[in-house]
Amino acid sequence: MNQRPQDLVFTLFGEYLLHRPEPVWVGSLISLLETFGLSEGAVRTVLSRMARKGWLEGERQGRHAFYRLTAKGRDLLEEGENRIHHPPGEAGWDGRWYLLAYSIPEEQRHLRDRLRVRLAWLGFGSLGNGLWISPHDVDARVAALARDMDVAEHLDRFSARHLGPDDAAELVRRCWDLEGIDRRYAEFLERWRPRLDECRRRADDGTLDPEDAYRLRFELIHEFRAFPLEDPYLPPALLPPGWRGGAAGALVEALHTLCRRPADDYVDSILETHRP
Fold first, then answer.
1. Across 40-110, where does the E strand assignment appear?
2. What's the pTM?
3. Does residue 74 have a pLDDT over 90?
4. 3-class SS at 101?
5. Label partner for 260 (CA 20 to 30 A): which of 190, 206, 219, 250?
6. How far is Cα 272 from Cα 75, in angstroms, rounded to an integer?
7. Which residue from 199, 184, 168 is spatially nearest to 247, judged by alpha carbons?
């Protein structure tokens, strides 16, 4: 499991604290993160750093520090939650492509790099030379992104049909590494199917400990959250035969459902007992 402190904090807030409006005492955050190898000093450092970056905001109540998500942090994690549990691409496809062309001056290269990352997050694939395509109607989100980054004057947006010379499958192969993504889905399934079977057995016989459920659900989402960054969630008509993204998503939902209540109970107990 990726042990970068900031990524662990994002997973904790996104999976367990996103829908809790009250700020969380830093002592509770330390208790919830120490099981993943973060020391008290490391937790305090990363919380402070994330507050400076605008993801969290801190407040003090007497001698005690508390943290909550900023609007920026909440928007990011809500979008991530939606893409994990309600991915796009399951509906039919009408054959139309959404095209985006940009021309950003060299002196604003940092904006160009940021835009590429955000477009990949929205499911775009690159045709090269500043031209990106998506089978999804994402115009409203692109317009909001352009306003947010102040690059609207550098973008042109189109809706079109592909007339060749390649077929749709070849066009997809040019724009996305589906073979590599599918291979990583297969590896994910191989690692997590035994853990799902074990969790089902323990849930059936009543031995699924709340702390174990908390840790298992955390590790599951922490690993799986990498996929929305690379999977464009193409419509079924554009996916290769035997695509394993759907099976991976179903496994996540099954294991998440088994662990949801006991894991939430564990977090509730920490927030209740570890308070100043």
1. 56-61, 64-69, 96-102
2. 0.87
3. yes
4. strand
5. 190
6. 27
7. 184
